[in-house]
Amino acid sequence: MPEKLIIIGAGPAGLTAALYAGRAFLEPLVFVGPSFGGQIATTTDVENFPGFPSGLQGPELAALMREQAEKFGARMVEESIVKVDFSQRPFRLWSESGEHEALAVIIATGATPRKLGVPGEDAFVGRGVSYCATCDGFFFRDKEIIVVGGGDSAFQEGLFLTKFGRRVRIVHRRDEFRANPTLQRRAMENPKIEFIKSAVVERILGDGKVTEVQLRSTKTGEQWTTPVDGVFIFIGHEPNTQLFKGQLAMTEEGYLVVDQRLHTSVPGVFAAGEVHDNWFKQAITSAGFGCMAAMEAEKYLSSL
Ligand code: NAP
Questions:
Q1: Cα(288)–Cα(44) distance, rounded to whole angstroms?
Q2: What per-residue confidence (pLDDT) applies to 126?
Q3: Angle of helix 181-189 relative to helix 152-161, nearest 10 degrees?
Q4: Closest CA to 269 of 6, 21, 79
């Protein structure tokens, strides 16, 4: 028997879809994928998720969402979907352990941190280069840290990294920041944070581990190097949609195209969260999209 509903991904969108689908007796099968909790699992203090006035840690929020979804019958599988075929019905999906069939699918695969694409970046991942302050900040106690980016992530994670580093320098390619004013104010008031504006990291250098970065001024073209132990990169995200290329309509940037009700180009396949949303990108909006996708999936299944 095919599954009624398979959900791919277990961040705020996938877990909320699982909760709503569970409560609609769809017994959703959720493929957790490589990163349970999605991006909130790598986020430190979550202060803007309603209902938690004192804030909470990202992984804790993800664990609570999972517990709530499981309470209503969602079944979590600690595997990734590696191939799909949406041209047949039921839909066919493959995970590491074999083939699965489903009458409806919700894609909530989220997005992955964007890379700088400079020499040294790949070579020093885990040896000074990181995309996750929660995961790696601890290793940089009393060290020199550089954070790349000018958005909310760079500021929020930069502030978190001041718990560990001797100094945190935020390197941004323009002289104005995108981060929200509250985070900017907090960073500017923090004595451990300094700013290198209108500059880009051109090369990451080291010997076994990162020792310095080469910077270039985006105004004058001047180049210089500075000693550093940790380079934390927060410059946005790429949608995780490679799996669906050729099967679902996508934007030029690779985001899934959905209608107002989160239907993709294939009836019965829905999308929720940062896999289609390149605008709001909040845990709460992703959760909202998860709710919408599950409600639409339920309507679709009833109509079959
Ligand atoms: P973002 O808002 O897209 O910001 C990315 C930053 O990286 C921008 O400042 C951008 O510069 C810079 N950048 C992009 N590509 C670059 C490159 N190749 N080299 C150097 N710099 C580059 O991404 P984000 O900060 O990850 O935030 C994503 C979303 O999550 C946003 O909607 C944000 O509001 C949300 N978020 C919210 C919170 C919170 O509410 N506390 C925390 C984290 C994230 P430009 O400014 O020049 O484009």
A1: 21
A2: 83
A3: 30
A4: 6
